Amino acid sequence: MAFGLKKRGPSDFERAADGSMTLMEHIRELRNRLFRASLAILVGFGFGVWLSGPVLHLLQKPYCDLPKARLVNGECNFVQLGPADLFLLQMKVALWVGLIIAAPVWLYQLWAFIAPGLHRHERRYAYFFTALAAPLFAGGAVLAYFVTSKGLEFLLNVSGGGDITTTLDITRYISFVTNLILLFGVAFEFPLVVLMLNFVGLASAKRLLGWWRVAIFVFFAFSAVVTPTPDPFGMTALAICLSALYFGAVTVAFLNDKRRGRGREIYADVADDEVSPLDLSVEPVEAAGRVEATAPIGAPQPIDAPAPIDRRYDDMT
Fold first, then answer.
1. Which residues in 149-185 are b (16+ Cβ under 10 Å) and which e?
2. What is the CA radius of gyration of the chain?
3. pLDDT, tens digit, for every residue of 167-205?
């Protein structure tokens, strides 16, 4: 008895890559991928509800570790201004945790929908930038967590008085910490923008290195504006880290230019004020044939001479 194998048809990814999918099929594919991503986020949200307590405790730690935070009965206390503030805050933290847990699934669904429209080298660049984006964001988040402790210590020392007890609202405090983490994480993605300019050929590594003074000034100005704490520690830490990442990105750009052979063009080694050499070789020119002169217009013409061309002033236009 013979058994035959059923031939597998092309997948949605393959059909989208070769352009054989219709518009309605693309819309159905988008719906299916959104459903899978939402289902993964819902499952991650379930785990986030379970982990919301430890995560909240971790976010409270920068403040609770300070000596001035334990003035009331030797414990770290927060207040809530509304009866449902803490519950809503736990749900918000659970959603953030769920997004992080489900990130591999919804990022894959997003990539599987976009990738068929990209060229092979564009996909390779996407893999490279995605692999760098996650650790860069994590590094910014860790720095923000460290800066939060120093910034709160500075603020409490400046604003605290002998007869004043400081008690923070839990909702506003968590928003302050998470916004700082998000801000630092996004700022640490700036080197990817620099690398993208180099990889697509808009800026060479030599040109990027020539902008280092402007870049450092922009980093310090950006850090002074976006850092929510007025202490100089957070601003300086963010600006120094961004400057170090910029020079690291320029180093990668130099390696990329060397790999692609940029800077080896025919005029790459010629200075701007260098005189171009002239070719002084003379080619021989043969003598031209004799040209017979014709009589002026209006003069008697020879019998065999061609008739003069009658031109008017408006024929010259």
1. eebbbbeeeeeeeeeeebebebbebbebbbebbebbb
2. 36
3. 788 888 888 888 888 888 888 888 888 888 888 777 888
User: Residue type for 99, please?
Assistant: L
Token output for 62: 């920068």
**Are 86 and 170 within 8 A, CB to CB?**
yes
d(CA 7, CA 14): 15
Cβ-proximal residues to 78 (8 Å cutoff; 6+ apart), any chain: 60, 167, 168, 169, 170, 173
Do the beta carbons of residue 260 and residue 200 sit within 8 Å? no
Helix (H, G, I), strand (E, B) or coil at 143: helix
In angstroms, the CA 158 to CA 149 distance is 14
| 168 SS3 class | strand
Q: Are 191 and 245 in contact (CB under 8 A)?
A: yes
Q: Which two tokens stand for residue 208?
A: 């990027």
242-265: pLDDT as tens digits: 899 899 888 888 888 887 765 555
d(CA 187, CA 201) in angstroms, rounded, equals 23
Q: Count CA atoms within 13 Å of residue 251 on its CB side.
A: 6
For residue 95, give the amino acid letter.
L
CA distance 90 to 92: 5
Taking the C-alpha atoms of 85, 91, 95 and 96 in order, what is their torsion angle to the nearest 10 degrees?
40
